[in-house]
Amino acid sequence: MNVDNLFGKRATRWLTPVLAAAAFTCFGALSAQAQQLPALATIRLSPEDVERGRQGVQQNFFFLAPGKTGENYQSAGFFGQKLRPYIASNPEAVNDLDHYRRQKTLYLVDKALLVGSVALYGSQVFSHGDAVYFNNTQKVAAGVAVFSILATVFINRHTNEYLKQAVDDYNSGPPAGRKGALWPRVRPAGVGLASTAQGQPLLALRWHL
What we know:
- The structure is a single chain.
- This protein is mainly α.
- It is about 55% helix and about 10% strand.
- The strands form 2 sheets. The protein has a 3-stranded antiparallel sheet. A two-stranded antiparallel ribbon has the order 4-5.
- The protein starts with a helix and ends with a strand.
């Protein structure tokens, strides 16, 4: 026994769009619910760290791990190493964290270079008895110190942004998962029924452009 025999052809013509409309509604509800689930597994930076921008201070970030609430923020570590286990499943986030680690390494090298050049300059002041402030070695040391100070500006320019981007990438979900984000843009804003001049039922869909 098919549907036409059970309900009649006319009833079937009305039943089809009704079932389609119900399917759209249910699918939309499930999609909206699925979008809300990842929010429960996000990483939260401390309010002070969220406000960091370019040329910000070079100190550890503090964050709440996925599923954690409250104000008990934990340190991400100097290189962000304590954050890495939480974002390991997201290649984009890991890549940004690698950039952050690179910048922090350059920061350490730059600081060591500055301290070393200042120490070298100072060691030359009384190395020959009388005070000397601008011999050839001191000229080199002074040049290295100036270079280091300038390099610090460029090294620190985007350092903090890399870690913040790593967190944003993780909270946005993996690249493959974001493909499903197309559905909210193409999902109808409204579903209803209409009829043709001959009285045939039609499924009416409406989108917000």
